[in-house]
Specification:
The chain is of the alpha+beta class. The chain has one helix and five strands, in the order βββββα. Strands 3-2-1-4-5 form a five-stranded antiparallel sheet. The protein starts with a strand and ends with a helix.
């Protein structure tokens, strides 16, 4: 048995799309309520117990999910700040050279 990490990419009524491992290999699987938590959401990170390609159990990795969410928020804030600074710089240049 081995443990693998995956992120939930998409959830439909019948399937769940996961991105598996570092290579983010796409895996589309049947939505099995006996294995997957009912409250599962896109963007959540999972630890999967697997054997011979079959998923035996699933655990939501709240720590990984929170860390990734925080990294994304920090990157978005950095991009917003840079955009504001670029806009301000452009406004200053426009005022200097009408």
């Amino acid at each position: 048995m081995q443990t693998k990490k995956a992120v939930v990419e998409k959830i439909s009524e019948e399937t769940i799309t996961l991105l598996m491992g570092e290579e983010e290999r796409e895996m589309i699987i049947e939505r099995n309520p006996d294995i997957f938590p009912k409250e599962l959401k896109a963007g959540e990170w999972l630890e999967l117990e697997m054997e011979e390609g079959a998923i035996l159990s699933v655990r939501v990795d709240r720590t990984e999910t929170d860390q990734v969410k925080k990294r994304i928020q920090e990157k978005m804030e950095l991009l917003r700040r840079r955009a504001r600074e670029d806009e301000e710089r452009q406004d200053e240049e426009d005022q200097e050279h009408p």
